[in-house]
């Protein structure tokens, strides 16, 4: 699908979509449990992949009206899948369920689309092997397709923390249902640490005790998953909130209100402070879960995305509108997402007349030297690139056409409907 955005102002009220990160973990935690109702779940391409994996391990996921998933789990004992686990484009699914596969008494095969088959899985495979199972890449390059033969039997392992926090999440979630639990030592500093905070928060909600240690994390074995009263409600997604928030900051003269923005462990809540620092008018009522944002004269700032990699595309687009330089640092790990988001934003914004300086671990956007002009840009098969380029189109001079725009389905299926609802002028057409 191609989407063409015309310059537009936005105003009105929008509700935050449910968190993708929490939904992934909730679906899998419900899989580890007996029966759970997961309310307000995000039903997207990525989370459907996790649901399919739970079913292949022996669970059942039934989607009801209103966004509730009724999940019958495999109660801590995943079966050997009868088919290949296709994780599609979801890196979270692949990493989390690779550890689940290591619990099964047999062999599981996991794969995904071309993009996912290029993403690093090696450290997780090595950790699973160190725990007594067999885990390998079919191409011996640390990338999918993966073959995992369980069950794991060890109780201690070390893993680097600077490639993906999802390795830690995967091992903690699986370790809770082993006999001996798991002591996890980090070999390097943990990147994207708030995502592990999300995991710890969710595990607690499902009655599982996991904790930080002096050199990593630990989870006791022999635990059973079970949400209180058999229900779990997914909070709003601050990664997705970043888009209407940024839209209001650059094109919301009459103001945009975002509902469903209750505080949580999500590191991407940092976007509220970032937009405020750049000069927009922002009021976050944490008790009510509302954010009101109105455009202002934006100024470039320096921002580290060490713990908030998903925010880089949004910050880059804000920087393209701001005066001065916006420097995004500690960004090397952002190159290992659905695409190399550092280069992708530099190149696609460059097509729109934005001057940037790209370094191995940073991206600087020279707002004062740039003039946003409409152009045809590529979504790169990456939902976050698509959505941030759409924001740029709101304030570019002329029409902006985004190719491959259907990839918003990964995390925010209703994104373009929501943007239209705020007053954006856009046209969709099939390729």
Shape: globular
Our count of helices gives: 12
What is the CATH architecture descriptor of the largest domain? Alpha-beta prism
N/C terminus separation: 5 Å
Cα-atom Rg, whole angstroms? 21 Å
Class per helix and strand makeup = alpha/beta
The poorly predicted ranges are none
Q: What is the strand arrangement across the widest sheet?
A: 22-23-1-24
Question: What is the secondary structure topology, with strand pairs?
Answer:
Layout (H helix, E strand, L loop, with lengths): L1 E5 L5 E4 L4 H13 L2 E5 L5 H12 L3 E4 L5 E4 L12 E2 L4 H11 L5 E5 L10 H9 L3 E4 L8 E4 L6 E4 L6 H10 L6 E5 L6 H13 L4 E4 L2 E4 L11 E3 L4 H14 L4 E4 L10 H9 L2 E5 L4 E5 L7 E3 L7 H10 L3 E5 L11 H11 L3 E5 L2 E5 L9 E3 L4 H13 L4 E4 L11 H7 L3 E5 L2
Parallel strand pairs: 2-15, 3-14, 6-7, 10-11, 18-19, 22-23
Antiparallel strand pairs: 1-23, 1-24, 3-5, 4-5, 7-9, 8-9, 11-13, 12-13, 15-17, 16-17, 19-21, 20-21
Helix pairs in contact: 1-2, 1-3, 1-6, 2-3, 3-5, 5-6, 7-9, 7-11, 9-10, 9-11
Main location: cytoplasm
Organism: Natrarchaeobius halalkaliphilus
Subcellular location: Cytoplasm
């Amino acid at each position: 699908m191609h989407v063409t955005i015309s310059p537009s102002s936005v105003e009105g009220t929008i509700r935050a979509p449910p968190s993708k990160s929490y939904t992934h973990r909730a679906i899998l935690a419900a899989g580890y449990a007996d029966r759970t109702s997961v309310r307000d779940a995000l039903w997207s391409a990525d989370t459907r992949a996790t649901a399919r994996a739970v079913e292949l391990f022996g669970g059942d996921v039934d989607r009801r009206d209103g966004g509730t998933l009724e999940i019958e789990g495999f109660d801590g004992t995943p079966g050997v899948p009868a088919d290949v686990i296709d994780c599609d484009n979801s890196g979270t699914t692949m990493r989390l369920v690779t550890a689940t596969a290591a619990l099964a008494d047999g062999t599981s095969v996991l794969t995904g689309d071309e993009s996912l088959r290029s993403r690093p899985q090696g450290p997780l495979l090595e950790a699973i092997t160190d725990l007594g199972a067999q885990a390998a890449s079919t191409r011996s390059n640390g990338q999918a397709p993966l073959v995992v033969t369980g069950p794991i039997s060890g109780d201690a392992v070390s893993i680097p923390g600077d490639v993906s926090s999802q390795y830690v999440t995967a091992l903690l979630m699986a370790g809770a249902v082993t006999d001996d639990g798991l002591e996890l030592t980090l070999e390097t500093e943990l990147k994207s640490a708030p995502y592990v905070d999300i995991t710890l928060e969710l595990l607690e909600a499902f009655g599982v005790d996991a904790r930080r240690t002096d050199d990593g994390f630990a989870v006791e074995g022999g635990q059973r998953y079970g949400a209180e009263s058999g229900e779990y409600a997914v909070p709003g997604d601050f990664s997705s909130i970043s888009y209407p928030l940024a839209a209001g900051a650059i094109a919301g003269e009459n103001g945009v209100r975002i509902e469903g923005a209750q505080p949580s462990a999500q590191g991407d809540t940092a976007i509220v402070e970032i937009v405020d620092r750049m000069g927009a008018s922002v009021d976050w009522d944490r008790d009510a879960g509302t954010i009101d944002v109105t455009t202002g004269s934006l100024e470039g700032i320096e921002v580290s995305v060490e713990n908030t990699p998903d925010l880089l595309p949004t910050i880059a687009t804000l920087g393209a509108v701001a005066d001065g330089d916006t420097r995004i640092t500690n960004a090397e790990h952002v190159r290992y997402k659905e695409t190399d988001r550092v280069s992708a934003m530099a190149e696609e914004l460059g097509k729109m007349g934005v001057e940037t300086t790209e370094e191995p671990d940073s991206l600087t956007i020279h707002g004062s030297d740039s003039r946003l002009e409409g152009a045809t840009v590529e979504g790169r098969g990456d939902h976050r690139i698509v959505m941030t380029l759409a924001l740029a189109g709101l304030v570019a001079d002329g029409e902006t056409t985004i190719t491959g725009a259907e990839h918003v389905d990964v995390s925010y299926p209703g994104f373009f409907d929501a943007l239209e609802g705020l007053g954006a002028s856009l046209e969709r057409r099939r390729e």
